[in-house]
Amino acid sequence: MKNILLIVVILNTIYCKSQKKADEINVLFIGNSLTYFHDMPQTVQKMVDETNPNIKIEQSTFPGQSLSGHLSEIITSRTEDGINTRQKEAGEITETEKKILEKKWDFIILQTGTVDVLIPENRELKVNKAIADIKKLVSNPECKFILFNTWASKNTYPQQYCYPNYFIDESIQKDQCCSPVIKSLENEVEIINEAYQLIAKENNLIKSDNGSKVFEVLTKHPEIELYEDEIHPNKYGSFLNACIFYQILTDKKASNLKYNGDIEAKTSAILKKTAE
Question: d(Cα 67, Cα 196) in Å, to the nearest integer?
Fold first, then answer.
C-alpha cells in the first residue's frame, strides 16, 4: 500500500512539473543596445511576474548588432561597450542561432538598428532576409514574431542616412544607397513607422508601436527626458518600452501594474498610460 501511495505521489509530482513546463510562455528578445539599455527585457520580466509569472523572458542582445549580423557573425571578444566579430564559416553557428534552437519559443521580438530599415535596399536585401532566416530556425510553428518599431534619434534637419553598396550587397549598381531626406521630427517618425509597417506586412509580423509612443511623450510631456544620448533610451525610455511589450505579451493594461521600478510614481503613471 505504501509503495502504491509513493508511486502516486511521484506521478503527481512529475505531472505537476510537466504541466508547469507546458504552461510556460517563452519569450526571446533579439536585438542590440536599443533593446538592452537599462535592462529593458528584465524590466518586462518584473512586470509580467506581477500578473503572468508563467511568462519567461530571455534575450540575445549585443551592442551594434543588426538582425543579419545575429546570423552571420561570430563574436570573438567583448567588453561592456562593444563586441569584435568575424564572419562565420561553414559549419559554425552564432550565439543567437544557438539561442533560437535552444527552446520552443512562443514569442520572438526582433529589433535592428533604425537606419537599417530606412534604406530601402538594406531593408529588402538584409533585414527581410534575416527575418525569414530566423523564422526558419524556430521550431514552434505557433510562435508569434513581434517587430520592435524603434524611434527617431535626436537630429538636426534635414537629415539623410546612406550605406555604401558593398555594406548591403555588391551587386547593387550604385556607390551608395540612401534613406529618404528627412525634413523634421514628425517626418522622421512617419518615415520610420512606414518602413516598419512594410517589413511587418511582408513578413507577417506583429508590429510594436514604440516609435509613436516615444513621439507622444516628446510632444505631450516634454518634461520627461527619454534619451540617454542621441538614440539610446534612458531609464524612462526603457520603462516606456517595457510597458509596451508587457501589454503585447499579456493583453493587459500597464496602468494597472503596481511595479514602478526606480521610476517616480507620477512619471511612471504617465509612461504606463502612454503605452496604452
Answer: 14
User: What span, in angstroms and rounded, lies between the C-alpha atoms of 240 and 235?
Assistant: 9
Residue 179 DSSP symbol: P
pLDDT value, residue 4: 46
DSSP element (H, E) containing 60: strand 55-61
DSSP-assigned states of every residue in 64-87? T--HHHHHHEEEEEE-SS-EEEEE
CATH fourth-level superfamily of 26-152+186-275? SGNH hydrolase (3.40.50.1110)
* Distances, alpha carbon 271 to alpha carbons 60, 145, 213, 229, 274, in Å: 26, 24, 9, 19, 5
pLDDT in tens, 120-143: 999 999 999 999 999 999 999 999
185-210 confidence digits (pLDDT tens): 999 999 999 999 999 999 999 999 99
